[in-house]
Amino acid sequence: MDYDELLELAMELGYQLQMCGAETYRVEESINRLLNAYGVQGEVFAIPNSLIVSMDIPNERPRTRMRRIPYHGTDLDSVEQFNGLCRRLCAETPPPTEAIEQIKAVKKHVFPLPAKIGAYFCAAAGFTVFSGGNLLDGLCGGICGVVTGLLVLFFDNLKTNTFFKTIASGFVLAFLAYCLGGIGLADNVDAAIIGALMLLVPGLLFTNSVRDIIYGDINSGVNRLVEVMIIAVALAMGTAASLHLSRFLWNPAAAGPLHSWPLWIQCLACSIGSLGFAMLFNIHGPGTLLCVLGGIFCWSSYSLALYLGCTDTMGFFIAAMVSSLYAEIMARIRKYPATSYLIVSIFSLIPGGSIYFTMDHMVQGNLAAFSQTGLHTIALAGSLAVGILLVSTAFRMWGVWRYRKKGIPPQNAPG
């Protein structure tokens, strides 16, 4: 056994998983399973921007390697491919050089630019109508979403830091929405801004931070959570600047009332928005429709909870549990990571509207409303996190019990 090549194999697998946006626990467990399959004990430490792997070699000194993880996006299709490849490598244990070639041979299926533009439009337009806007607002929200998406792609190309990218994109999308409202195209500018703002709300980061904390990866969880807070501040600053500029240049008309659409229209708008996000997270094949279906289940369960008299925070908790349960079941049926199904299906619960109105109150100097709305937003996010935590923890405990019953160490079980 060439231990240097085995260490290189472990590093390459972990690096590719992290570059695709996999959770910390998935990266660490995949490498541990791989090393154990080759008969080697090791230690893995991963945080969002670094990966360290150490191997205990019989009759030799331990070998350790570290690799820095640069800025990366999210590619859930590739997470599924590398996760499946890890299963095969653990079962077949080919020579490390051959396994490395298999990792490098994985083809990343990326949507072309026109499809991405369509996804930005669908995501923003769908969640604009979902947030209470009419069809014209949806069109304006979709236009703002396309401009926002192109800006994000432009800044990503220049390797711009997340804080500046979010401020600039938030400023442009909000100012464009105010302009569209000023010429009479958007009846409710707030709905158009909320719909486009969903493209910048760190839903994936928030969900991954919760899952990392659940599995005991406190460093990674807190790291991601801090990034979520920084992005939220950047969104507040960008949209607040656009509001001040629009008020300085002209007096924007007051936004019209948000529509209270029937459930079937809400679910239709939610499915269109979820389809856009599924494409933006690079989900292909039947998984796309299953993610959209999960979004409908999630919002329907929330609506049913409100109908039965629950508060909105309790409704968020119940819907998060339903969404997490759906993701865990689909993951085990299709042998894919639960992340893909959870991220997209839960997007309808991401409190983008609450975040927007919180910072709107701050800009207007209404501290009482700002405090009330801000605390309510935190409560909604907390309910969301606890719902995900309970279901994920229950499934993890069940998995450990099941593999122990079979005599398989949990770290060697397929994940």
Structural write-up:
- By secondary structure, this protein is mainly alpha-helical.
- Helices cover 71% and strands 5% of the residues.
- The chain has 16 helices and three strands.
- It has helices at residues 3-19, 24-37, 76-92, 96-104, 113-130, 135-157, 162-182, 189-197, 203-214, 218-249, 263-280, 286-307, 312-334, 338-345, 352-364, 367-405, and strands spanning 41-47, 50-56, 63-68.
- The protein has a three-stranded antiparallel sheet with strand order 1-2-3.
- The radius of gyration is 22 Å and the shape is globular.
Tell me briefly what this model is.
By secondary structure, this protein is mainly α.
- State the end-to-end CA separation: 25 Å
Beta strand %:
under 5%
Biggest sheet layout: 3 strands, antiparallel
Number of strand elements:
3
Structural class: mainly alpha
Q: Main attributes?
A:
single chain, 415 residues, mainly alpha, 3-stranded antiparallel beta sheet, 3 strands, 71% helix, globular, disordered C terminus
Topology of this structure?
Layout lengths: L2 H17 L4 H14 L3 E7 L2 E7 L6 E6 L7 H17 L3 H9 L8 H18 L4 H23 L4 H21 L6 H9 L5 H12 L3 H32 L13 H18 L5 H22 L4 H23 L3 H8 L6 H13 L2 H39 L10
Antiparallel strand pairs: 1-2, 2-3
Helix pairs in contact: 1-2, 1-4, 2-3, 5-6, 5-8, 5-11, 6-7, 6-8, 7-8, 7-10, 9-10, 9-16, 10-15, 11-12, 12-13, 12-14, 13-14, 13-16, 15-16
